[in-house]
Every structure is written in C-alpha cells, then in structure tokens.
C-alpha cells in the first residue's frame, strides 16, 4: 500500500525550495541569502532538500508534458494527436516548442537543486552519518538522471558540477552527447556507492536506491550499446533478491501495488487533494468520454493510440486490452468505434476529483531489468534455449502467451533481437520508452518513415529526417546566449 509520509515532507520541501531558489534562464543563479545562511545546515535541512528533488521530478513528468510528448514520438501514437504531443508525433517539433523548453528547464532545475545539496552537505551537521551519504547519493542520482534525459533529448548540453550564476553560465561551453552521458555515468556511479539498497524506514518508501541508480545507468549503457558495462549492473539487481516480476501484468499499474517488488523506481503520487495526485490517467482519456472508469470525462490532450500498435499484439495477449481501449461512448450517448487511447493507469482507485489519482508512474520496472539482461545475453552470443529465451518466455507467459518461443521460432541472433524489440513495445506501451528503443535500434528512419506512410497518419503528410533522433536546443537558450561557440543549435533545426 502507498505510504503517504514522504509526500507530506515533499510538500514542505517544495515550499522551502521555492522560497530559497531564484530563477535565471537555467534556474542557475545563486541561492538567496536565506538559503545560504539559514538552510542546508542540519540533517533535517538536507532531508527536506533531498525530498524536494522528488517534487522537481514530478514537475518534469507532468508540468513539462514529458510523458505525452515522449510517448507520442514513435509508432505507438498516431498523428491525429493534438497540441505539443502532436508536434512530436508528426516530427514538427522545433526550437520554439513549449514543452521542449519546459523539459529542458525542469531538468536544469533538478540539476541546480542537486548542486545546492552537494555544495553544502559535507559541512552540514548530521546526527546519523549514514544519512549524509544517502542524501548525497540522492543528489548525485537526480543530477545524473537529469543529464541522462538531456543527453537523450538534445545531445550535448552544458555540464554544471556546481551552482553558478546566470552570467557564469554564458561562458560554459556545450558538451557533446558522449561527454554528457559520461558525466551522468559518473554521477550514477557515485550514487551507487552512497545510496542504500533499501531505505531504513517505511516512511522512506519510494526513494531512489542503489539498485535504481544501477538500473538507470544500465539503461543509459544500453542506449550507447555498452553491453559489457550494463551487464554487471543488471546482474547485481537480479541477484539482490529484492525484486520479482509481479504475478499479474495488471499489478504493475494499480495503486494498490505501488512500490511493490516489481517496481525499482517510480514517480510517486498520492490522492487526497493534497496537490500530489497523478493527472495522467484522465489526461490520456478522450474529453467527452462517459464511463465508470472516467466518471468526470477525459481531456482534449489525450493521445490517439495507433492502430499499428493495437493490431500488433498477438491474439491472446492480455496486455493489449489492459493498456488500450478501442472506442468509447461520449456524454451524449454517441458511440465511437474507432478511437484508441491508453487506459493503462486508470484501472485502480477512482479519485473524487478528476486529476487526483494515487497511482505511481513507472520509471524502472524489474521486468525491464530482466528484458535488458536478456538482450545483453543475446548480444554477447546467441544461445538456442538459453537464459535469454527463459526470460523472454517468462514475460510472455505472464501476458497470457503460454506457447513458449524456441530456436525454431527464433533461430539466430537477429531474430531474437527483433523479438526483444517487439516484446518491449507490447510490455512497455505507455511507459515512455518506445522512442528511445527505436533510436537505439539504429533503424529509426526506416521504422518511422514506414509508419508515417500508413493511412492512419494521413499517408505522406509527415516524415522523419535523419537529424531528428534528437530534439532541438530551445530557442530561448540561444537568444539568451548568442555566442555560437558556447551553445549552438542541433543540425536540422
């Protein structure tokens, strides 16, 4: 069951950090005199500051529209989708797209808050030294997390290992994508050495652990095809005994099972009209819908899930109808038999207000760890009937596909690689991973331009360019700093 104590602390820490932080173009100006003189001194100060990092992570996942826009990029969502998410789906996003700028801003706010903790924590007064390490580990984890996301989205970005002033940032040259990932990897490595495998009290349930840092670092390694680096990280999570795949697929996405052993790291939410509710379940439903699952209707921002995804599921796969609803009845009683949309996070407790769901959003699940590990085993060398097959068939069996795949079905490394790629699409639909899997496959241009040719996308209205595996640098950043030797736009934008 959901533990709400951390959310009360998050509310307090959000207030404090709102008071004590100033904003510049990257939210990087020095903290106020109150912050420097009166805060970041005691263990309780750092507890509040560290918990505030999770509030900033919530902001990235909602106020920047990250889930909508990243899920829309790729072949899970079709081009009927509107607003900024539609631009991402249509490959029409650019340097002036509002959501892109907000993703950038929230990532750098997370970096700035992490740097504020790291700058002061060694001089702080702690009654329990273990917590000095834990809170420092959280700061490294969150800074690495932000730089990993920025590296994926925009390529190389300015790297800040301390708080700097708005004027100083103008002289910090943009790094390469590889340098950005290396910086994030160093932060994750520090976090792994500092974070606990399990937090000491139930009130701390949902905080980042050593295994969360290992898993996200492994994901970044796979994005760069660094299989030998990722393998021991994933193996350590698997051998820890702390995690297990949920018995039922549905148990991964219902608030009753939040923070279960399936979940390695989640964005935490709680209902109760305390400002910590999850809005995504209802945002992904059509605005005029009338149903028991959505008694107050949906949102005009909903994503049009693609026929291509819906029809790709194998007959008998229970994940399709759990993840996606095909058609609905509107408030006027009119039946729509065509529109498809995600209901993945709406199966649990229905809140009293439209945007106050309790369900957490997954960032890293144990099933993902297992499938990444199977992928690495295959990349190391195909083995007919080996451990990689066992993992793949375990995931499929939970989905209701009881006929095991064998070397007859997947006779070589390429066919197994493709099977993992497809399995990830079906398993993680609606979990903001598909686009990054497409990019790291090396086949993004072929996959996306074939997909964009389908009738559901208007046939030839849209296309992907080779430069669009990354997004633009927000235009306002270039306007603030016109020195193209320091920061410059990505090709094609």
- Strand and helix order: HHHHHHHHHHHEHHHEEEHHHHHH
CATH fold assignment of the largest domain:
Serine Threonine Protein Phosphatase 5, Tetratricopeptide repeat
Report the helical percentage. Answer: 40-55%
Q: Distance N terminus to C terminus?
A: 46 Å
β-strand amount: under 5%
Secondary-structure content class: mainly alpha
Adjacency order of strands in the biggest sheet: 1-4
CATH classification, class level of the largest domain: Mainly Alpha
**Overall pLDDT:** 92
Q: Specify the biggest β-sheet.
A: 2 strands, antiparallel
Poorly predicted ranges (pLDDT <50, ≥5 residues)? 7-35
What is the level-2 CATH architecture name of the largest domain? Answer: Alpha Horseshoe
The shape, in one word, is: globular
Please give the domain count: 3
CA radius of gyration is 22 Å
Task: Tally the helices.
Answer: 20
Tally of DSSP β-strands: 4
């Amino acid at each position: 069951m959901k533990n709400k104590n951390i959310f009360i602390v998050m509310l307090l820490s959000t207030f404090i950090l709102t008071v004590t932080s100033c904003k510049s173009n990257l939210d990087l100006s020095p903290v106020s005199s109150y912050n420097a003189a009166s805060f970041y001194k005691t263990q309780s100060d750092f507890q509040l500051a560290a918990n505030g990092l999770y509030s900033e992570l919530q902001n990235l996942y909602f106020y920047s529209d990250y889930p909508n826009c990243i899920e829309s990029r790729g072949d899970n969502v079709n081009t009927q989708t509107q607003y900024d998410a539609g631009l991402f789906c249509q490959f029409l996003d650019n340097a002036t797209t509002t959501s892109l700028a907000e993703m950038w801003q929230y990532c750098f706010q997370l970096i700035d808050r992490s740097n504020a903790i790291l700058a002061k924590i060694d001089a702080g007064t702690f009654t329990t030294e273990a917590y000095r390490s834990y809170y420092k580990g959280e700061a490294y984890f969150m800074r690495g997390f932000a730089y990993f996301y920025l590296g994926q989205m925009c390529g190389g970005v300015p790297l800040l290992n301390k708080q700097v002033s708005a004027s100083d940032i103008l002289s910090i040259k943009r790094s390469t994508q590889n340098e950005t990932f290396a910086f994030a990897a160093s932060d994750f490595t520090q976090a792994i050495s500092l974070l606990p495998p399990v937090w000491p009290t139930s009130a701390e349930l949902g905080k980042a652990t050593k295994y969360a840092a290992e898993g996200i670092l492994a994901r970044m390694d796979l994005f760069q095809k660094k299989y030998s680096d990722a393998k021991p990280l994933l193996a350590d999570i698997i051998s820890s005994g702390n995690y297990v795949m949920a018995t039922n697929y549905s148990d991964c996405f219902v608030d009753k099972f939040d923070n279960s052993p399936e979940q390695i790291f989640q964005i935490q939410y709680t209902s109760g009209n305390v400002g910590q509710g999850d809005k995504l379940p209802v945002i992904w439903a059509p605005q005029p819908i009338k149903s028991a699952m959505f008694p107050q209707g949906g949102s005009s921002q909903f994503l049009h899930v693609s026929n291509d995804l819906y029809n790709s599921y194998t007959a008998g796969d229970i994940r399709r109808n759990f993840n996606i609803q095909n058609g609905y009845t509107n408030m006027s009683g009119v039946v729509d038999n065509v529109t498809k949309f995600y209901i993945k996070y709406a199966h649990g407790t229905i809140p009293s207000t439209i945007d106050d769901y309790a369900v957490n959003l997954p960032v890293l699940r144990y099933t993902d760890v297992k499938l990444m590990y199977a992928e690495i085993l295959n990349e190391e060398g195909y083995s007919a009937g080996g451990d990689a097959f066992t993992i793949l068939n375990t995931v499929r069996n939970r989905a209701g596909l009881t006929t095991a795949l064998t070397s007859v079905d997947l006779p070589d490394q390429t066919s197994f690689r493709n099977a993992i790629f497809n399995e990830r699409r079906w398993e993680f639909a609606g979990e903001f991973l598909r686009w990054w899997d497409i990019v790291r496959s090396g086949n993004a241009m072929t996959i996306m331009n074939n997909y964009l040719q389908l009738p559901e996308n208007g046939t030839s209205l849209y296309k992907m360019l080779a430069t669009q595996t990354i997004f633009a640098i927000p235009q306002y950043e270039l306007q603030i700093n016109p020195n193209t030797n320091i920061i410059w736009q990505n090709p094609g934008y």
